[in-house]
Each structure stands twice: as structure tokens, then as C-alpha cells.
Amino acid sequence: MSQTTFDEDDLFGEAAAEMRSEVEGHLADARAALPAADAVWDVEADNTLGALNSLKSALDTGDAADHLRAAKKQYVMGERADAFEDADDLEAEIDDLEALLEDIEDAHADVSDLAGTLPALRSALQEAESEKEEDDEE
């Protein structure tokens, strides 16, 4: 029969290791939820609007932001408790993922704006072409 230890330093060390493991797990889940590079690069569509809509779907980050938020919460708790001996790698990974997620979300917003503008632009161009044809016929 093993003797269970309730030494505070041992318990704190275990808690710190568990907290680090949770941060790493959330970071891995966030990375896994990001779009695949090929899904963003290779889109299939019959026209420009289809390509934009396909790209907009490919840029969906799913639950990545939620996982990153959970990782940051655990990291902040661990940092404030001074639980991590060396957390520079965690901080760097959080910062990198946060920047990547922001870039993807910005691209998604840009593509959404363009996809929303394109049909109106097409209609305006079609109307201008029709007016030109009418002027040419006169």
C-alpha cells in the first residue's frame, strides 16, 4: 500500500503540471480547429462569387477562439500563481496562435465584405452595359 502525500509543495507541483498540461491541450485543440492551409488555398467554384463563398467557408475558425481563450485563462491563472517554472514557450505559442487567429478572422471579414459587395457591383455593371447598348442603338 502506497502512502499518499499531502505535502503542499508536492501538491502544488502536481497542480502546476496539470495546469500546464491543460494549457497545452487547449492550444493543441485550438490548432486543430484552425482551417487547413490547402482548404484556404484550393477552392473550387464556377464563378468569382462561388470562389469567395468557398474561401469564406474555408476561413471559418470553428472553436479555435474558444480553445485559445481557455488556454489563456489557464495560463494567466498559472502565471499569477507563479506555478510555471518556465512558461516562455506557452506564452509564445499563445501569442503566435492569437496573431494567426486574428489574421484569419481579418481575412474572413475581408472576404465576407467582398462577397457582399460583388453582386451589387455586378448588377451596376450590367445596368451600365445595358444603358450603353441602348445609347448605341439610338
What topology emerges from the helices and strands here?
Elements (H helix, E strand, L loop, with lengths): L7 H26 L3 H5 L6 H11 L5 H17 L7 H50 L1
Helix pairs in contact: 1-4, 1-5, 3-5, 4-5
Task: Characterise the protein shown here.
Helix 3 runs antiparallel to helix 5. This protein has helices at residues 8-33, 37-41, 48-58, 64-80, 88-137. It is an all-alpha fold and 138 residues long. It has one domain. Helix content is 79%, strand content 0%. The chain contains five helices and no strands. The protein is rod-shaped, with a radius of gyration of 25 Å. Pfam families: DUF5790. Residues 80-138 form a coiled coil. Keywords: Coiled coil.
Provide the low-confidence segments as ranges: none
Distance between the first and last residues' Cα:
102 Å
Q: Name the beta content range.
A: under 5%
Oligomer: single chain
The total of beta strands comes to 0
Please state the CA-atom Rg, rounded to the nearest Å: 25 Å
Q: How many distinct helices?
A: 5
Helix content: over 70%
Q: Tell me, briefly, the overall form.
A: rod-shaped
| Helix/strand order | HHHHH
Integer average pLDDT: 91
Number of domains: 1
Keywords: Coiled coil
Pfam families: DUF5790 (PF19103)
InterPro entries: DUF5790
Coiled coil: 80-138
